[in-house]
Amino acid sequence: MAREEAVFKGTREGLLIILDDRREFRVVMDKLRAKLEAARGFFQGAQVVVDTGSRKLSSRQKKSLEKLINSQSGLKLKSFLRGDRTADSVAQEEVPTPAEEAACLPEGSSASTEPALLSAFGKVSVLPTLFMRRNLRCGQRINFAGHVVVFGDANPGSEIVAEGNVMVMGTLRGLVHAGAAGDQEACVSAYRLEPSQLRIAGVYTRSPDDAAKAAGNGPEVAYLREGQVIIETGTTIPALSLAHKS
Amino acid sequence: MGEVIVVTSGKGGVGKTTTAANIGTALALMERRVVLLDADIGLRNLDVVMGLENRIVYDLVDVVTGVCRVKQAMIKDKRFNESLFLLPAAQTKDKTAVTPEQMKKLTTELKEEYDYVIVDCPAGIEQGFKNAIAGADRAVVVTTPEVSAVRDADRIIGLLEASEMPEVQLMINRIRPKMVKRGDMMDIDDIIDILAVDLIGVVPEDDKIVVSTNRGEPTVLDANSKAGQAYRNIARRITGEQVPLMPLEEEVGFMGRVKQLFGFGR
Question: Contacts of residue A157 in chain B, CB cutoff 8 Å?
Answer without folding.
Answer: 151, 154-155
